[in-house]
Amino acid sequence: MRAGPFSDERVVRLANRRFVSLYFDLSTRGAAGDADARAFVVKARPAYGGGGVPTPDVLFMTPAGKELGSVSNYATSQQVLAKMQEVLKAHPQWNKPSAAEKELADPIARAELRTDLLDFEGARKELAATEGDRAQYLLGRLARRERRWDEMEKHFALVKDPAFGADVRMERAYRLWDAREHTKLLRHLTGFPKESPRFTEARYHEGLALYHLKKRDEAIKVWASTIKACPQDPWIYRSDWAYCDAKAGDGRRRMFSTSGPKTSLLNRHGYMGRGGNPDLR
Fold first, then answer.
1. Looking at the structure, do residues 65 and 54 belong to the same domain, yes or no?
2. Which of the residues 31, 89, 114, 134 has an alpha carbon 20 to 30 A from that of 98?
3. Share of the chain above pLDDT 70, in %
4. What is the distance between the alpha carbons of residues 268 and 214, in angstroms, rounded to a whole number?
């Protein structure tokens, strides 16, 4: 899940606003074994306490251990988002603004909150009367999320502060990715600044461009070098998923995070959802 839905910015931002995310192995001998977490979940789902348990669902629970909903571990980002929103709608007591959120006076901060809660129109309203580069950048980013490319460019053209250069460059890359202009995408991202927080995101997409240009080995090298050189983050997890699928090749057994030559570079239980990494299709 960390390489699939939980590498999706929308899922991550909503989860950070309204949920407390916990990741652990059901087996206490696993890489992320946690006996207390296991006991907490098994109390709600006794079937998870036995041997030979199939891949467990992602559970939405209260601090007291009541289950509010669940979604398959193989769900898509959209399915996870829909379930999160369903849970919040059915349990509004968990969807109330915090005291800190109520006190937000800065329209930029309020717009970021609205964006996190997937209220893009509300975010636009917060930014409508706000001047400056950051406001224009955020408006451009909102337009990118909804694939309103001309609107995106209109806002980015007004961003003059070079501090936003790498961010704008990465945002514009999504237009090329959406249009499947892989040669232009590769050229656009090559040499992306390593000091940018979005370096791993850019490298992931650079690998995708190479992969779709039939340069599979070069794509694998890009993902491998990024995974080995950078701290783990959602784009590193997704790169590991792409690396494993590309390395396995069409018609061969998929790579999993098990011991031996078929282990992922992170040596962990990666997201090997049914159908493979959709970005490689």
1. yes
2. 134
3. 91
4. 28
